[in-house]
Amino acid sequence: ALLAVAIYGFGRISVDWVVGTPLHALVANKYYVDEIYEGTVVRGTLALAALGAAFDRHVIDGIVNGAAQLTRLWSAVVGLFDLRLVDGIVNGIAEATIEWGNRMRNVQTGGVNAYLYGIVVAVTVILIARTW
């Protein structure tokens, strides 16, 4: 500021004397604030963004894709368990019920003696079961 007053206010120093000096370059380039800002804040932010993008691409996406693969594998295992064991038990019970019903159909003859024998057998089985 004093130099500007000496040059432009009082005319004591010639402008030509200041031009080309490091002081003139410093003031002409606005104290290199833009260059410093570009070199630190802008490039630092871009580097941090690139680092975050690489972390997301390699770590986060790896975890997400691994979890998806694990979920697909687990659902295949559970699907086989359901298909083979659960459905097998349900279908086996249904087939046994149908088979038992077909056999019991032959017992239903309409004869009173057959029903009495069935009742006697059932009561005997119940009594034996209760004594154990």
Tell me the fraction of residues in β-strands, as a range.
under 5%
Low-confidence runs (pLDDT<50, min 5 residues)?
none
**Biggest pleated sheet:** none
Give the mean pLDDT: 91
**Count of alpha/pi helices:** 5
The total of beta strands comes to 0
| Helix fraction by DSSP (H/I, runs of at least 4) | over 70%
Radius of gyration: 48 Å
Distance between the termini: 114 Å
Structural class: mainly alpha
What is the string of SSEs from the N terminus onward?
HHHHH
The global form is rod-shaped
Structure in a nutshell:
With 132 residues, the chain is mainly alpha-helical.
Outline the secondary-structure elements.
Elements: H1 2-9, H2 15-18, H3 22-28, H4 33-107, H5 112-131
Task: Please characterize this protein's 3D structure.
Helix content is 86%, strand content 0%. It is an all-alpha fold. The chain is rod-shaped and about 140 Å long.
